[in-house]
Amino acid sequence: MIVLADESNLLAAGAVHAAAWRASHCVFCSPEFVKLHTAERQADYLQKKMEEGSRVWLLIEDKPVGVVSVCGSLIEDLYVLPERQNRGYGTALLRFAVSECDGTPTLWILENNERARRLYERLGFSETGRRHVVKNGLDEIEFALGGGMRYRWVIFDLDGTLTDSGEGIKNSTVYALDRLGLPVPADSELRKMVGPPLSIGFSLLGVPANRIDEAVRLYREQYSARGKYQNRVYPGIEDCLKKLREAGLRLCVGTSKPEPLAREILSVFSLAPYFAYIAGATFDATRQNKDDVLRYLLSVTGAEDAVMVGDTHYDVIGAHRRGIPCIGVTWGYGLLSELEAAGADALAVSPEALSDFLLS
User: Fold this and answer.
1) 4-13 b/e with 16+ CB inside 10 Å = b?
2) Would you tell me how many other CB atoms lie within 10 Å of the CB of residue 113?
3) Strand order of the sheet with strand 326-329?
4) Span 250-276, pLDDT tens digits
5) pLDDT averaged over the chain?
6) DSSP-assigned states of every residue in 124-143
7) Do strands 74-80 and 277-281 pair parallel, antiparallel, or not at all (unpaired)?
């Protein structure tokens, strides 16, 4: 487990830091200088960093085996006990540190540290071109994750983007129309219910304005009882989310589905932990359009350098109204022609293509 360092474990963190530092620096530092790096000295060093704003974590298995610190988007002090190296602890600590960065993760390594270089490059870091000289004629080299990715925040639509919820939505729509004694349209028309707020969807199906509120009530009655379970995660989505999180991107959900339902569905499919925030519509319709949801989400998270990902033109229009670009995905329920007409900034034909684009 990885725990935040505090007074109770700071000396243990210092001991790990000292042992690993001595092992990695003994080849180019004098023995006298290496011996100065005791557990107590390194604990004091970490304490000072914490006082200056860094957060320090300790990786513990049967005993403390690794340490890392993060200050803003800068990752430092990534050390693993010499006898526990090459067991995945460094990778686990680095991935954790990336998820805690406020912006694009950066770090510095000595130019002769080939082991660290291989680890960082394997996980998507690359040289930025910045370096500075340290003692003994060695340079420190800066690495950044992704070599400077386009975005820091990715906002996902839910229905038709993360999950294939069409069956439950269409069945709940049929239930509402039957109860109202209204004709049920063809499946190609029922698809229009996936994406927009319910009131707009029923309007598109020709439900009279004075019966839309009742249609929404009946729909929710059926959807809450059965429809929400007639759903599945699109193949490749979880791998995509995992890649983006490990690369340091902050992920959110912005959906026109009522927020409590969105949170429940994502929890059922074990996707909720990937997201920093899940924002949705309200049951009283005070927040229902994608524009409204995104305004709320951006105000709550303070997200900057964000991009929307969705399958319908509603996602594109809502994102553009908030001043953010939108990537249209073609595996959902929206039409490619509508995405293009709305001005989608890019298109992705698969979750793998989406992650490749975002991390390029």
Assistant:
1) ebeeebbbbb
2) 15
3) 277-281, 250-258, 153-156, 306-310, 326-329, 346-348
4) 999 999 999 999 999 999 999 999 999
5) 89
6) TEEEEEEEEE-GGGPEEEEE
7) unpaired
Report residue 318: phi and psi, to 5°.
Answer: -65, -40
Give all domains of the chain, ordered by start, each with its CATH number.
Answer: 2-145 (3.40.630.30), 153-164+231-358 (3.40.50.1000), 167-229 (1.10.150.240)
| Structure tokens given for 357 | 């684009």
pTM surpassing 0.70?
no
CA neighbor of 105 nearest in space, from 141, 75, 76, 67: 75
Per this entry, what is the length of the chain? Answer: 360
Instruction: Return the bridge partners of 70, or none.
Output: 55, 75
Question: 330 versus 86: which is more confidently predicted?
Answer: 330
CA distances from 22 to 8, 208, 252, 284 (A): 24, 76, 41, 62
Q: ∠ CA 287-151-261 to the nearest 5 degrees?
A: 30
CB neighbour burial string for 180-216, b if at least 16 within 10 angstroms, e if fewer: bebeebeeeebbbbbbbbbbbbbbebebeeeebeebb
pLDDT at 146 over 80: no
Element (H, E) at 172: helix 166-180
How many helices (H) and strands (E) would you count in the chain? 15, 15
List residues with catalytic annotation.
157
Torsion of CA 109, 110, 114, 118, to 10 degrees: 10
Q: How does 332-359 read in b/e, with b if 16+ C-beta sit within 10 Å?
A: bbbeeebbeebebebebebbebbbeebb
